[in-house]
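Input:
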Amino acid sequence: MNGNPVLYDHPGPRAKVRNAILTVVFGGLILALLYWIYRKFDEKGQFTKVLWEPFTQGAVWKNFIFPGIEGTLKAAATAMVFALAFGLIFSVGRLSEHRWISVPAGVVVEFFRAVPLLLMIFFISFGVPFLIHQPVPPFWSVVIGLTLYNGSVLAEAFRAGIRAVPSGQSEAAYAVGMRKSAVMQHILVPQAARAMLPVIVSQLVVLLKDTALGYIVSYPELLQLGVNVVAANYFNVIQAAIVAAVLYIVVNFALTGLANYLDRRTQRRGIKTRPIDPGAAMGGAGGGF
Amino acid sequence: MPVFSDPANFDAYVSGFLWILKMTGASAALALVIGVLLAGMRVSPVPVLRWFGAAWVNIFRNTPLTLIIFFCYFGLYATLTISLSDDLILNNFWLGVVGLSVYTAAFVCEALRSGINTVPPGQAEAARAIGLTFSQTLRIVVLPQAGRAVIAPLGSVLIALCKNTTIVGTIGLLEASNIMKQLINDNGDQVILIFLVFAGTFAAVLIPVGYFFGWLANRLAVKR
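Output:
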């Protein structure tokens, strides 16, 4: 990115000298920091070939990392489908004119947005077995937890999207004789869904990152298989964590790029989109605004 | 409330949430400082700083927090033997705070930067036209307006941080979620009550905080 050129003038001769000095000073500081990290790693022999070598072997990828990625993607995809359905149902429910629907829907959404995801996953995987008298598979405790949390976040996003559709749209639909459900189904939801597409994709990034919580309830995903198990076999926890982090970053970068592309495209068509809530992007939306 | 009438359980409940509070406070302060510095770097005229800020944000924002906390313990502490305190519990606490702060700082930076983008270009252009330097433009004209626009996003970051502190339980700190797990395992007949008390505590604190930030943001919004 080219910064905010509006904040400063095009550099003149003096500013150029000053920027050059700052570049050298801070560049030196950053290099010093990198060197310090290098020294720390080197001191503990973290650059030894043995520690990095496993990642050049096909077997490590085939037995640990690819199954890990598969577990992560499977949980994320399943949870995303459920979360979209949950979000759609509860956003429409919260917009209902019947209080006996809108109030409970609002309570559910506010509650699940305010409760830490880990607390929910712990309840599902350790508490629910006492209630149903049989164990809950880790896959489902992760997916249900992710669905309840991300579904609630999406419900709020959809609600804002539906309300952002110009009121002339629904008025015109009522004028041609459509009923409430038909207006929602044929007029409001399709327009809102198109405007919300970037938000949905960026929520997918949050969801993908949160699948890493599955490690805590021993669901075999990337952090569990690609870092924990690999490190247990080859004693290279730092190297395994770096490789896994790079994989996460690549996938999420691609998804963020897709979200930005969709955002630009919808804006070009003149559809207003809401800015993405940074708190939601961090894996935890606010209590409610 | 049969479980919580046992003083030992009640004390565990209180201490679990005290850890959450302490971690939220320490990480929020540290993340705010790092985040403001990063945001300053990302809009600065010096390319090296812009590059550093962008790299930090893109790396930490796209890595799962669980992996970062995992790395802080097994990487920094167990492998590189970087210890932050002689006390084992405090050491875990500070390792957790470091992980939470570097992660949250990326989101603080992005919130601030989007706030800077909400200030109309005319404001900065006018400031430049009367001869203010970059740091004066930022300090006197842009940041005071941006600051009011970022209250709501920063509020959501703070709430998310508070919920994310539970992840430090992974490295053995007995915070609320670990205490809940213990209580559930010891009192299998009252799991719903235990969950509702722990989840309810979070909801009872965080939902009003969310509305408070929404109200504050509305009140302080720059009317244009």
